[in-house]
């Protein structure tokens, strides 16, 4: 298996630590006035999302992960698994709830997604940055019931709940940022 030296370490690099795939989120090279130089890295476990910090000497190395990000299309969910298809080869893979994570709140069908495969098995799913979803339930906004910006909760067709401005009504289609889960705007 390939390995990376401390000079090769950079943000976004995928590595194996304790037998699990991780992605490096932050690196800092430190050369103290006295003593040996070292690299401080922060990495996130792809499966669990847990973030850990690690300090390594210049002579240490990290094992490269056999992780591949693939563009796929979400097809459907059967309750237990979420099914995705590769557009070119029509190859289908299924991912369990732990791999899909919070992305499930933004998938209704036919969205393009980035599926992370480790040894051919999907371990993480990333939804498009913005999705358009219909509001199925929200309270009517009454004029004058806020003292500031205000907002109200709205349940979307996928089951997700987001805060929307008071002027947004039920059965409207809104644009949601999947990275933060926030309302972006109405769709005309």
Write the layout of secondary structure elements.
Blueprint: E1 3-5, E2 14-17, E3 20-30, E4 38-45, E5 51-57, E6 61-64, E7 67-77, E8 81-85, E9 92-96, H1 97-100, E10 112-118, E11 121-126, E12 130-138, E13 152-156, E14 161-164, E15 173-177, E16 182-186
Antiparallel strand pairs: 1-6, 2-3, 2-6, 3-4, 4-5, 7-8, 7-10, 8-9, 10-11, 12-13, 12-15, 13-14, 15-16
Describe this structure in words.
The strands form three sheets. Strands 1-6-2-3-4-5 form a six-stranded antiparallel beta sheet, with no helix packed on it. It has a five-stranded antiparallel beta sheet with strand order 9-8-7-10-11. It has a five-stranded antiparallel beta sheet with strand order 14-13-12-15-16, with no helix packed on it. A hairpin with a 2-residue loop joins strand 2 and strand 3 (about 20-30). By secondary structure, the protein is an all-beta fold. It folds into three domains: about 5-65, SH3 type barrels (Roll), CATH 2.30.30.30; about 65-125, Nucleic acid-binding proteins (OB fold (Dihydrolipoamide Acetyltransferase, E2P)); about 130-185, Nucleic acid-binding proteins (OB fold (Dihydrolipoamide Acetyltransferase, E2P)). The protein is built from one helix and 16 strands. The longest helix has 4 residues, at about 95-100.
């Amino acid at each position: 298996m390939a390995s990376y030296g401390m000079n090769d370490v950079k943000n976004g690099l995928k590595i194996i630590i304790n037998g699990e795939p991780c992605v490096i989120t932050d690196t800092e090279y430190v050369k103290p006035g006295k003593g040996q130089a070292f690299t401080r890295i922060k990495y996130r476990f792809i499966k669990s999302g847990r973030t850990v910090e690690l300090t390594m000497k210049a002579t240490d190395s990290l094992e490269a992960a056999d992780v591949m990000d693939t563009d796929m299309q979400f097809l459907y969910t059967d309750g237990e698994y979420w099914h995705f298809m590769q557009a070119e080869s029509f190859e289908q893979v299924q991912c369990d709830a732990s791999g899909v994570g919070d992305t499930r709140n933004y998938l209704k069908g036919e969205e393009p997604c980035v599926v992370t495969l480790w040894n051919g098995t999907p371990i993480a799913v990333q939804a498009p940055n913005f999705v358009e979803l219909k509001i199925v339930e929200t309270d009517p906004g009454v004029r004058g019931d806020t003292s500031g910006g205000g907002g109200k909760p709205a349940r979307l067709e996928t089951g997700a709940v987001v805060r929307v401005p008071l002027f947004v009504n039920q059965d409207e289609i809104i644009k949601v940022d999947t990275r933060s889960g926030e309302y972006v705007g109405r769709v005309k």
